[in-house]
């Protein structure tokens, strides 16, 4: 009996390392989760390699044959597999991650940005299955994204495409975490919801949100807005109305350029639930060019949840192991 093929997927973030053996159906067969020893690239690669060695033994015992490993990292990744820029993982600045993982594991290796990798996962085994053109937008502390064009995740000329959080939304206001004013992320991310809510709270226009924050306007966060909104508080719902319009305007800008079949959303803000997502859905078409003459572009939830990283990385690995 010949062994069935599987690949290894790695999700390498600022705080965690997840490594999994994933079969051709996108099912996680063996998995390791641990904290990220993010001080040096050697420690990072060492923890990936140790976990991989254990998982490969388990996979072999399970009759699985593994030849390739893929990794998604919170970094800009160039076409030579070098992590060039990683705002939250200092060890991954100009780090030759692909070659180091290949040397440490002996497997054929491919790496990409974590949002691109999540898009590969959703495309193969999640909400974008069967689509040729689609957008994955991750709304969390920041905004990440993956652009699917013609059935593939688009990397641009240098591998740095789809930094969707960093297009200029309003160059005159709000500093983005990257140091440039007015990027969409400074208006439409979870962090931005907190900034907006504090502005409204300090003006005295958000009494129930301030109450949820224990009475201190400066302590208001996005969570307090969601909590008060779920209780039906009008001041919190008004903040979500404004915020949803910032998010929806960004969606429409991208949709006007890319004409996707669907926009798939993931990330912490999606957990706020229908009270926010329904507002984004309502406002999104209002900002589309020629909206009366276009088919509907559905906004749907991602399906792989926090497994998108490892599953997507394992899907990416199939590119260097076409037998998988
Ligand atoms: Zn930015």
Total number of beta strands: 12
Strand content: 15-25%
Low-confidence stretches: none
- Find the CATH topology of the largest domain: Nucleotidyltransferase, domain 5
Percentage of residues in helical conformation: 25-40%
The overall pLDDT average reads 94
Structure, explained:
The protein has 324 residues and is α/β, with parallel strands linked by helices. It has two domains: 4-126 and 306-320, ATPase, nucleotide binding domain (Nucleotidyltransferase, domain 5, 2-Layer Sandwich); 134-302, ATPase, nucleotide binding domain (Nucleotidyltransferase, domain 5, 2-Layer Sandwich), CATH 3.30.420. Helix content is 37%, strand content 21%. The protein contains ten helices and twelve strands. The strands form three sheets. The chain has a five-stranded mixed sheet with strand order 3-2-1-4-7. It is globular, with a radius of gyration of 21 Å. The protein binds zinc ion. Residues 166, 176, 178, 180, 183, 185 line the site of zinc ion.
Looking at this protein, list some descriptive labels:
single chain, 324 residues, alpha/beta, Nucleotidyltransferase, domain 5, 12 strands, 37% helix, binds zinc ion
